[in-house]
Hints:
The complex is a heterodimer.
Chain A lengths: L3 H19 L1 H36 L5 E7 L2 E3 L1 E2 L2 H5 L5 E14 L4 E8 L7 H6 L1 E3 L8 E4 L1 H7 L6 E5 L5 E10 L4 H4 L2 E4 L1 H8 L5 E2 L1 E6 L5 H11 L3 E5 H39 L3 H12 L4 H34 L5 H5 L16 H26 L10
Parallel strand pairs in A: 5-10, 7-9
Antiparallel strand pairs in A: 1-2, 1-12, 1-13, 3-11, 4-5, 4-12, 6-9, 7-10, 8-9
Chain B lengths: L1 E10 L7 E11 L4 E5 L6 H8 L7 E6 L2 E2 L5 H11 E4 L11 H5 L10 H14 L15 H13 L5 E5 L7 H16 L3 E6 L2 H4 L6 E6 L2 E4 L1
Parallel strand pairs in B: 3-8, 3-9, 6-7, 7-8
Antiparallel strand pairs in B: 1-2, 1-4, 4-5, 9-10
Amino acid sequence: MKNQAIEKQLNLLDYTLSSLWRRKLKNLGIITVFAVVIFLVASFQILTNSLTETAEQMLGHTPEIVVQKMSAGRQEAIPVSYLDRLDGIFGIRAAVPRIWGYYFDETSGANYTVLAVDREIMPAGRSLEMALDGDFPETGEGEAALGRAVAANLNLAGRSTFSLFRPDLTLKSFRVTGVFAETTELLTADLIVTGLEDARDLFAIPEYLATDLLIYVTNPNEISTIARKIAAEFPDTRVLTRPQIQKTYQVVFGWRSGFASICLLTALAAFAILAWDKASGLSAEEKREIGILKVLGWQTTDILVLRFWESLVVSGLAFLIGCTAAYLHILFLEGSLFRPVLLGWSVIHPLLKIVPVFAADDLLLIFTLSVLPYLAATVIPAWRCSTVPPDAAIK
Amino acid sequence: MIELQSVNKFYNLGQPNEVQALYDVNLFIEKNSMVCLRGASGSGKSTLLSIIGCIFPPTSGRAAVAGKQLARLPDRFMTIHRRQSIGFIFQQFNILPALTVENNITLPLLPLGVSPAERRQRAGELIERLGLGHRRNFPAGQVSGGELQRVAIARALINNQPIILADEPTAHLDTGLSQEFMRIMVDLKKAGKTIVIASHDPLVSEHPGIDTIIDVKDGRVDVS
């Protein structure tokens, strides 16, 4: 035999469900609006987490320190001769010159990032090959590896060669040796990777200059110490560390997501106010029903429990629908609704496959920001209304 | 069974719109009797019925219903006492039209933690007794006035309370249905219930089943 208290709660839940069903149109409307708001908030949360996670995974392969030469507050090409002076700093495993720059493709109106490193002297050089479907380009051979978006944009249609303009408008041809894997797309979508000589040829950069220098350290715990030493040795440079870059990604996604979240939280707050307003102004029919129930022996607490169940069912259902829809939105539509907001509006979007990352604390956060305010917004006014004198029903 | 001594009832006590609804009321209603509270609208019948029905306590005086002193009972216990001791039949029956006949009848049992099977069984007995078998699963909004009246009676009896209070139960019924109502009340009295009916309908007050008529006028009572 079931406990009487449990049976009572089941009875009240049963009555709640039938009561919700009786006002199905109104409740369906509330659930729909509420679920949409939760879907928006949850989508941003999942997308931000997924992008941050992907970025962190990708940045794990990047150099620990990047040294850039600064002049009048702007970056300029750095002399390759700086590499000799870096040899004197203890803890540096390898220092590699890098050339990179933007190439504007007038045909598609897109900017590509052209990047060149010497893979042979780069400690992580071999891991670059792992990110490639194909071979890594050899330097001086006019070879290039492309990001997936670039490959799609160049519309190669089976061809393996393409040409880019030098500054003097002569054409430089490249042969495609590989395309970067889909999983790296957040970082490689707009990338053209080539050899140092070919990049110098394309951008007309003299042999004694590079865009920046990549530094690999022996002990990752010493990154900031070595960065300080480099900054002290080369006062005309800007020294960027991997943790700083990771932080920048987090801040960028976090800021964008935070900005959008504030807008959405405003919508959530507006919904809570609406719910409060609706709950405080019980209709004459609802007041009469409360009066009848009270005369029939229902306690004020029974009415409150009824309201609580009602709100919990409505908000819980909206929460489940909203979160599930957000998860499916990221999983199958890859967050297409919000990708431009979080990834920027450039012509080339990273087309990476985002794997939804949905942590328990995110669920708890969204639950706290949606279901709890709704419960408060409906149960508290209902408590005021449930103190309606029961004799109102028999007059 | 029901005893009121020097009962006064004020509404909005101490405020500019203060109204005294009952003046020094004394009455005694025996167990297993049928009493009619007779009076015009606004005479204080409903207030008297509300005090007997444990909906609110008197402002002053003593009111004892089914062995409990109302003035001493906190609101929560008054509600419990009400659902254990009193069944209500309202003027317009106050049935929830969207619920089925059976669900309306079993409403008082929900907060008591009575299981669905027992609710069905108890409702079934009353439904058969009152001739509502063919309407059991109908929405109450779709049944006739006479059937609605019987639904209200069944709901008042579902918890087997010893006292039945009816407030103007025949106000919206034709003569035939009013007589049918009184016939059921007489049967209930025979079954041991104590019945109090507030009505200004002569068909009720002059019914042979009525044991006592209490005239209520301007908040004062006169027992005959």
